[in-house]
Write a structure and sequence with these properties.
Number of domains: 2
Number of strands: 7
Number of helices: 4
Order of helices and strands: EEEEHEEEHHH
Helix content: 25-40%
Strand content: 25-35%
Largest sheet: 5 strands, mixed
Structural class: alpha+beta
Distance between the termini: 42 Å
């Protein structure tokens, strides 16, 4: 990228051209890709810093990591909170970055609503026509509803991570 600066002097007009260094960025998401390859100018006082904040905003990423196709994800890249530029300087013409996408608000809300619907379904089934063995389990003076809710919470909290990994392995999550 070239920038032209024109200046009028007493001797006549002079044009000064300076080149702003550019770097080619290969952007991966969770190690897959590259999803996009683009050129971006380096910024900062010495023209050797990447604008990480702009890259994260453009592609909906919450964090960026250094990336190598042979060794995978590297260290997390830190950015200056004032201007969004990288803390590290870059030399060369190719940079590989790996990003972690931002979390959607839809996922946690849908999980909570699904769990509430599941617990409600279990309670409706138990309250309509409880089996005989449910009547036998009524000890400590309480009904079966608090025990049912307690068991559901314990089991769901224990199985949640394994279930999430199982669904993710089938590509449904």
């Amino acid at each position: 990228m070239e920038e032209e600066i024109s200046r009028d002097d007493d001797n006549g007009s002079q044009k000064k051209t300076t080149t702003i260094p550019e770097v080619e960025v290969s952007l991966y998401v969770r190690g897959e890709g590259p999803i996009h390859v683009f050129k971006t100018p380096l910024g900062g006082w010495d023209q050797d810093r990447l604008d990480l904040q702009q890259i994260m905003d453009d592609y909906g990423l919450k964090v960026l990591y250094a990336y190598s196709t042979s060794s995978g994800r590297g260290l997390r890249l830190r950015l200056n909170p004032r201007n969004g530029l990288s803390m590290l300087s870059y030399t060369g013409n190719l940079v590989c970055l790996d990003g972690e996408p931002k979390d959607s608000w839809l996922k946690p809300i849908s999980k909570i609503l699904m769990m509430l619907a599941l617990v409600t379904l279990f309670l409706v089934v138990i309250l309509r026509d409880p089996p005989q063995w449910v009547h036998k389990l009524k000890f400590i003076g309480g009904g079966s509803i608090p025990w049912t809710v307690t068991i559901i919470v314990i089991v769901s909290s224990r199985v949640r991570k394994k279930f999430k990994n199982l669904i993710r392995s089938y590509g449904l999550w």
